[in-house]
Amino acid sequence: MILYKGTVYDSIESVRLLGTLQKDAEAALRENNLDREKLIDAVDKISGLILDGEFDDLIKSIDVDGIEEYAARAAHLLKKENVIKNLNAQLPDLPDLPEIESYRAPVGILFHISAGNIDVLPAYCVLCGLLCGNVNVLKLPSQDNGITLEILKRFIDIFPDAADFVFVFDTPSSDVSSMLTMARIADRIVVWGADEAVSAVRKLAPPNAGIVEWGHRISFAYIGSDYKEYPDLLEELAEHIIMTSQLLCSSCQRIYVDSHDPVEADRFCSFFLPLLQKARDRHPLRDMGAAAESTLITLTERTEASLFGKGKKAERHFFGRACSLRAKDDPELEISGFFGNCSVSSLPLENLFEVLRNKKGYLQTACIIADSKTSSLAENIMVRAGVNRITSPGKMSDTFLGEAHDGVFELSNYVRIINKTK
Predict the structure, then answer these.
(1) Do the bridges between strand 135-139 and strand 109-113 make them parallel or antiparallel, or are there none, so unpaired?
(2) Measured between alpha carbons, how far is residue 348 from residues 331, 357, 368 in Å?
(3) Cα separation of 164 and 263, whole Å?
(4) Beta carbons of 385 and 359 less than 8 angstroms apart
(5) Which band of pLDDT confidence, cut at 50, 70 and 90, is reported for residue 311?
(6) How far apart, in whole angstroms, are the C-alpha atoms of residue 75 and residue 93?
(7) What distance separates the 2 farthest-apart alpha carbons in the chain?
(8) Is the per-residue pLDDT at 38 higher than 70?
(9) What residue ranges in 107-243 does DSSP mark as E strands?
């Protein structure tokens, strides 16, 4: 389905509507302004509708565990006081210079190519663009189930002035001609996704359109050799791994133990597996597809261990029920098996920088569980290697008002600074 100037159309209308997109989008950019205060009030009303269960039927069809938790996270992003705090943090007052007056203006037309693995992300992207005064063209992610269109339609019903600023298409990424049409009219293209998606947009984008890339990221935990002294923090890490199913960029994909001895990874697995199992027992996989995938991962690992020998040097497997750990001699930072299946390696502090730099540009969130001296040294290494977020283990996937995204204030990408001589 398509949402075009407040009206929902069947996908069959795509070619016709794309033919008038540039004219209609530029007309809104030229002639109209949005009242930010009224816009924020409308966003807040959407937050209330989410909490009231207005979108529960659509949320149920999304591949998530816990409808109430999903709704709460989504509503939190859109709550009025949080939107205002985020705006104030990310777009503070500009400096008052003696010869120059400075103010912000919209970038113009934003073309959003969004991912679908974060709570209401596509709709949130459009609302952020609107808050900065931009016209927004959105290509829906393939796994979107209609919730984005419904949220934005309800938003426009509440705040009709936004209708001319929102154009949503369910165009598949394979439709290069339609993608080019949307890209050519954009002042800036905002892409969320893996390397393939980012690379495709780089080839697609015209030279006069800027690109904002929110690409694939990877996160990890670094554990001191005295890890047995921090059972509460390790329980938080286990809870995080299970609750996120390791599907987010901020999810822990690899655990490093500060040690020169490769066998220390095995010892940690033996110690940590009961904590991971305890978290899994509290939060069983409720989605049939996710449960099947987790079972397949575990069975594959068991088969490999059987075929190649349990004593195989490179990898040793520690199996629980619907969760597992894998001790690996190779410390390369990479994606784990998802759904409570995590890799562990010994990695002395002196080698941490080299391992992390091999993934420069991909590093996102790290947690550190260690004494204060080790934590301080590890944090310094991580920051210099390229890590952008350092949190406690239970908050690796939490969002915080006003925080930067991948090291950059998100909203700063959606505005321009205008300088005018006094």
Answers:
(1) parallel
(2) 10, 15, 14
(3) 62
(4) no
(5) very low
(6) 27
(7) 76
(8) yes
(9) 109-113, 135-139, 166-169, 188-192, 210-214, 218-223
How buried is 409 (Cβ within 10 angstroms: 0-12 exposed, 13-18 middle, 19+ buried)? middle
Helix (H) or strand (E) holding 7: strand 7-9
Q: Check whether 270 has a pLDDT greater than 60.
A: yes
Residue 398: what residue type? D
Work out whether strand 210-214 and strand 341-346 pair parallel, antiparallel, or are unpaired: unpaired
Rounded to the nearest integer, the mean pLDDT of the chain is 90
The residue whose two tokens read 């008002």 is 401
How far does CA 267 lie from the centroid of its chain? 32
Report which residue type is found at 382: M
Sequence letter at residue 147: I
Q: What is the pLDDT of residues 54-96, one digit of tens each?
A: 887 777 666 555 567 767 877 888 999 999 999 999 999 999 8
The Cα 343–Cα 336 span in angstroms is 6
The domains of the chain, with CATH numbers, are 2-215+406-421 (3.40.605.10), 218-395 (3.40.309.10)
DSSP 162: G
CA dihedral 50, 51, 56, 59 (to 10 degrees): 70
- 354 to 108, 217, 223, 342: CA distances (angstroms): 41, 18, 17, 21
**pLDDT greater at residue 373 or residue 124:** 373
